[in-house]
Amino acid sequence: MKLSFTKMQGAGNDFVVLDETQRSLDLSAAQYRWLADRRFGVGADQILTVRPAPSAQADQADQVDQVDFEYIIHNADGGEVEQCGNGARCFARYVFDKGLTPKKHIRVLTRAGVIAPQLQEDGRVTVRMGCPRWQPGQIPFDALGLHSRAQHQDTLWWLPQEPQAVDAQRGDDGLGAWLSVVSMGNPHAVQRVASVQDAPVAMQGAWIEQHPRFAQRVNAGFMQVRSRSEIALRVYERGVGETLACGTGACAAVVSGIRQGLLDTCVDVHMPGGMLTIEWRGGAADEVLMTGPAQPVFEGTIEIPDSV
């Protein structure tokens, strides 16, 4: 199968973008994995698919009303996921640049709900990412029996490295981690660290991502607070590993920091691939705003081998 694609990146988080507005490509999980492979395919953290707005069904008419497109995301492991913030910015840039819409402010349906990206005059893109959620069942996160402690308006949960060791020693001894757990349409577990440079992202990120307390796995964030308006962040993404940037991870970290009384309502998030600006007023009904770059890298066609 031969298909056309566009390679894009947002703060170093890179994507292969596919256009299904005219026809469905009907790719398998194995084919998505192949496309994302940096040795045999194009190479990407995620594959983003542009689809036309779906027809409203009776049980979802309110959700798809006035939606411009549907946004589908597959991780590098081939699995479909609910949301990708950096990808959302690239999605908005792509549909405008390709002439799929003349609008700079669109509404897009994702598995997590409707988001609203808007192209700015300076070339950056702002996305209304929806409202954060903290109830364990909404993430989903099994908190039953785990130790917890209040931190201002937030709750920190002690996640033992050994799944059965609920009563394991709690502290900075490598046996576990204190985490703030939040959903930004996809699950995130954020911990505060003294230095992102020295944080054990590869080691801790891997076991946190796969921990059985998270039924759908989880994205692990490592946040260093530099000031009330600035943090540094590294994210170990589920199904991908550590990436240069994670938009929903930046949102989750800022939301957690605000709820813990550490941050103000507008925060610059510095990640290895670049900077995002996150805004949140702090209320349960307040949407999170994310602003950052979205850039095309190159375009091409590629033949997916029949053996894939």
TrEMBL record:
Gene Ontology BP annotations: lysine biosynthetic process via diaminopimelate
Cell compartment(s), UniProt: Cytoplasm
Group of enzyme by EC: isomerase
InterPro entries recorded: DAP_epimerase_AS (IPR018510), DAP_epimerase_DapF (IPR001653)
GO cellular component, one term: cytosol
Site (Could be important to modulate the pK values of the two catalytic cysteine residues): 188, 237
Keywords of this entry: Amino-acid biosynthesis, Cytoplasm, Isomerase, Lysine biosynthesis
Keyword Cytoplasm: yes
EC number: 5.1.1.7
Any one Gene Ontology molecular-function term assigned to this protein's record: diaminopimelate epimerase activity
Pathway this chain belongs to: Amino-acid biosynthesis; L-lysine biosynthesis via DAP pathway; DL-2,6-diaminopimelate from LL-2,6-diaminopimelate: step 1/1
UniProt entry tagged with the keyword Cell cycle: no
Reactions catalysed: (2S,6S)-2,6-diaminopimelate = meso-2,6-diaminopimelate
Family note: Belongs to the diaminopimelate epimerase family.
Listed HAMAP family: DAP_epimerase (MF_00197)
Function as written in the Swiss-Prot or TrEMBL entry: Catalyzes the stereoinversion of LL-2,6-diaminopimelate (L,L-DAP) to meso-diaminopimelate (meso-DAP), a precursor of L-lysine and an essential component of the bacterial peptidoglycan.
NCBIfam families: DapF (TIGR00652)
Descriptive protein name: Diaminopimelate epimerase
Source organism: Vandammella animalimorsus
Gene for this chain: dapF
